[in-house]
């Protein structure tokens, strides 16, 4: 009598919560400090494994500049101050982008029969975001964690700042971004480490060397999953 049981559970609000995406969808969070190389490596992984790459920062910057957005000012202030935009905004943008991608019915490895594989770059930056995403949107398969020193990250960001036009590629904003990363994002990484989901990669070396290490770690991961 499963239908009756379902109806009773529904009436009593006992039905277990369903997230938007099920286990057909592989989600890899990509974390690491500002300038660690998250975006650079994600772009390479898209070529290797047909991932959809969604950078939370890029989605927020696009929303900031979208005409009519009610969040433009808020996002601009948070990015400049290196603080975290309220999670509801970011989680909704990610969910919308994931839904749109799945509706496109992409072809290639990992996309047949409603399956999909996503690199979620620069997210979750805070424990509450991780909880909200996993509850409402979908479960994380793994976390790619790029590590290097603060000196290396600072140098990369200042160099990029000469041409990036990013409002947060300046010394004042970068210092604030480092602090937010240490205080809010490191606990997220520790949480996933306890769950055995973190793949740590030293990103101090050349882009190509980091790519080779990352590619082989992701190949291992995907060969162990159905996607
Ligand atoms: N570079 C990369 N790898 C290299 C290597 N191995 N050797 C030499 N050079 C290398 O790389 C940075 C620069 O370094 C580039 O010039 C690259 O060529 C070179 P990149 O790949 O862009 O690094 P990345 O880690 O992606 O750095 P990014 O600046 O994007 O990281 P952040 O995490 O700071 O930025 P993000 O865009 O994710 O977030 C920005 C802001 O948005 C946050 O501070 C926050 O205010 C807000 N935000 C939220 O509020 N919520 C979110 O969920 C996400 C963001
Ligand atoms: Mg980036």
TrEMBL record:
Compartment annotation: Cytoplasm; Nucleus
Organism name: Lentinula guzmanii
Pfam family, one: ADK
Residues holding ATP: 35-40, 160, 205
Function: Catalyzes the phosphorylation of pyrimidine nucleoside monophosphates at the expense of ATP. Plays an important role in de novo pyrimidine nucleotide biosynthesis. Has preference for UMP and dUMP as phosphate acceptors, but can also use CMP, dCMP and AMP.
Name of this chain's protein: Uridylate kinase
Binding site for a ribonucleoside 5'-phosphate: 61, 83-85, 122-125, 129, 166, 177
Listed PROSITE patterns: ADENYLATE_KINASE
Keywords in alphabetical order: ATP-binding, Cytoplasm, Kinase, Nucleotide-binding, Nucleus, Pyrimidine biosynthesis, Transferase
Entry remark concerning the domains of this protein: Consists of three domains, a large central CORE domain and two small peripheral domains, NMPbind and LID, which undergo movements during catalysis. The LID domain closes over the site of phosphoryl transfer upon ATP binding. Assembling and dissambling the active center during each catalytic cycle provides an effective means to prevent ATP hydrolysis.
One GO MF term: nucleobase-containing compound kinase activity
Free-text comment on the cofactor: Binds 1 Mg(2+) ion per monomer.
GO biological process, one term: pyrimidine nucleotide biosynthetic process
GO cellular component: cytoplasm; nucleus
InterPro entries in the cross-refs: Adenylat/UMP-CMP_kin, Adenylat_kinase_CS, P-loop_NTPase, UMP_CMP_kinase
Kinase is among the record's keywords: yes
Catalysis performed (reactions): UMP + ATP = UDP + ADP
EC number of the protein: 2.7.4.14
């Amino acid at each position: 009598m499963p239908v009756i049981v379902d109806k009773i559970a529904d009436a009593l609000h006992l039905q277990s919560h369903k997230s938007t995406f099920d286990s057909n969808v592989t989600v890899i969070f990509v974390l690491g400090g500002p300038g660690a190389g998250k975006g650079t490596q994600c772009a390479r992984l898209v070529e290797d494994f047909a991932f959809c790459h969604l950078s939370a920062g890029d989605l927020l910057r696009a929303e900031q500049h979208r005409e009519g957005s009610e969040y433009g000012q808020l996002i601009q202030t948070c990015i400049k101050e290196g603080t975290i935009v309220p999670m509801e905004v970011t989680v909704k943008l990610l969910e919308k982008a994931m839904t749109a991608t799945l509706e496109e019915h992409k072809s290639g490895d990992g996309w047949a029969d409603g399956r999909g594989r996503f690199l979620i770059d620069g997210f979750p930056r805070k424990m509450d975001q991780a909880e909200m995403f996993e509850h409402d949107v979908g479960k994380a398969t793994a976390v790619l964690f790029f590590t290097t020193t603060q000196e290396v990250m600072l140098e990369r960001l200042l160099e990029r700042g000469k041409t990036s036009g990013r409002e947060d590629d300046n010394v004042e904003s970068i210092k604030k971004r480092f602090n937010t990363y240490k205080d809010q994002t490191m606990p997220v990484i520790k949480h996933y480490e306890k769950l055995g989901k973190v793949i740590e990669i030293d990103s101090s070396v050349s882009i190509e060397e980091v790519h080779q290490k990352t590619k082989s770690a992701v190949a291992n991961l995907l060969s162990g999953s159905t996607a």
